[in-house]
Specification:
single chain, 127 residues, mainly beta, four-stranded antiparallel β-sheet, 12% helix, elongated
């Protein structure tokens, strides 16, 4: 992943100009392409301290559950004691005036809630 520089308490920016924020619901970074260029683009108010992006941000990905994060779980999966399933994860939100409004179709614990954008540097450093 390319280097991402901090541009405010809550945002980072990659060399390609994409804007990055930390998602408290997914506990991972999400990025948005802003300005002109190819591919999907988001409107951005240009205020890195209190950002607003339009339209909504929809992130979807498949994830194996349970995750084989420890050797004992990986072994139980390998021998068939635990069966993994592929689950589609959804994070859908509006980012308005520095806050994330998570919509009810989110599959994580913050669905239906609104929270401040997390601290970018602190979150990125522990990832």
């Amino acid at each position: 992943m390319s280097e991402i520089k901090t541009i405010s308490k809550c945002l980072g920016q990659a060399a390609d100009g994409s804007i990055w924020f930390w998602c408290a619901g997914c506990d991972t970074p999400h990025n948005l392409n802003v300005g002109s260029g190819s591919g999907p683009r988001w409107g951005y108010n240009g205020n890195a301290e209190v950002p607003t992006f339009t339209p909504s941000v929809l992130v979807q990905h498949d994830q194996w559950e349970p995750a084989a994060i420890t050797p004992d779980i990986a072994e139980k999966i390998r021998i068939g004691e635990i069966v993994q399933i592929k689950a589609t994860k959804v994070c859908h939100s509006f980012i308005t005036e520095g806050r994330i409004q998570y919509l009810s179709d989110c599959t994580h614990h913050l669905g239906g809630q609104t929270v401040d954008l997390p601290n970018w540097e602190e979150s990125w450093a522990r990832w």
